[in-house]
Structures are given as C-alpha cells and as structure tokens.
Write a structure and sequence with these properties.
Blueprint lengths: L2 H20 L4 E6 L1 H5 L9 H18 L2 E6 L15 E2 L4 E3 L5 E3 H14 L12 E3 L4 E3 L6
Parallel strand pairs: 1-2
Antiparallel strand pairs: 3-4, 4-5, 6-7
Helix pairs in contact: 1-3
C-alpha cells in the first residue's frame, strides 16, 4: 500500500473516532460489505484489500480511545425498511422508499438495519449525521453538517 493511502486511512479513522469518543460513544458497528468482498480490483479502487485495511485502521483507533468496534455483515441490510420491515424500492440519488409512504437515504436505512440487527434497537428520531471530508493532513467537517 502506498504511504499516502495508508495516511488517508489512518486520518479517516482517527478524527471521527475522536469525535465519537468526545460524544461518549462506547461501541461502533461497521458494515462489512459482502459485495465489495466479491469484487476484484487493486488497492486504489474499492475492493476487499483496501476495505480491510481501512477497517483495521478504524479498529486500531477505536481501541486507542477505548471504543469497542464490531463488524457486521451488511448483506441485505438495505433491502427492508428499518422502521417497518417492508421491502424498500430504490429511487434516484440513493433514496429508499418504504411501502408505507416514507423515504430514507439508503445508506441511513442500511445503518439503522445494522443497528437493529446488532442491538435490537430502533431509532425513532434521526439527528443530522456527522460528516467529514478527509484530506492528507486535516479532516474538515462538511460545511453546515456538524452543527
């Protein structure tokens, strides 16, 4: 792996975990993408090799902050509505439409299903997610997303 890519992985893992630790988070659940694991590529494309190294960096940083990190197979986690369990239909720009007429971003729906699968918790209110832009040295919050 190139040193720049390794630096990005460590930077990507470090800042969000620092923020989560500051918020009192004691455990994180990351989705293990079954589909990514099946694709071929090199270390500069999305594939299991680079994904594995990123998850290793996340686990390492989590351990430094005393945060437990768990990987959860996310296979079929985005197929059903996180609130009602009905099959969702994919729409434009990653929108998942529930048969009961509400919409959620498909990544958020998947994350909520992973949470439900691992903790049996259902989130009733979704606050604004933390969002960051990762560059080689600093990690900058996306303007307006973390307030």
């Amino acid at each position: 792996m190139t040193s720049k890519l390794l630096h990005l992985y460590r930077n990507l893992a470090s800042h969000p975990l620092e923020e989560l630790h500051g918020l009192g988070v004691s455990a994180i659940y990351t989705g293990y993408s079954f589909i990514i694991a099946q694709e071929e590529g090199n270390e500069l494309t999305v594939n299991i090799c680079s994904y594995r190294k990123l998850m290793d960096a996340v686990k390492s940083r989590a351990q430094e902050y005393g945060v437990k990190a768990f990987e959860v197979v996310e296979h079929d986690a985005s197929e059903n509505c996180a609130y009602h369990g009905g099959e969702v239909k994919g729409g434009p720009r990653g929108v998942a439409s529930c048969p009961l007429e509400h919409k959620l971003h498909s990544d958020l729906n998947c994350a909520l299903n992973i949470l439900k699968k691992t903790t049996n918790a259902t989130v009733s209110t979704v606050k604004k997610p933390l969002a960051f832009i990762v560059v080689h040295n600093p990690v900058a919050p996306v303007k307006g997303c973390n307030t």
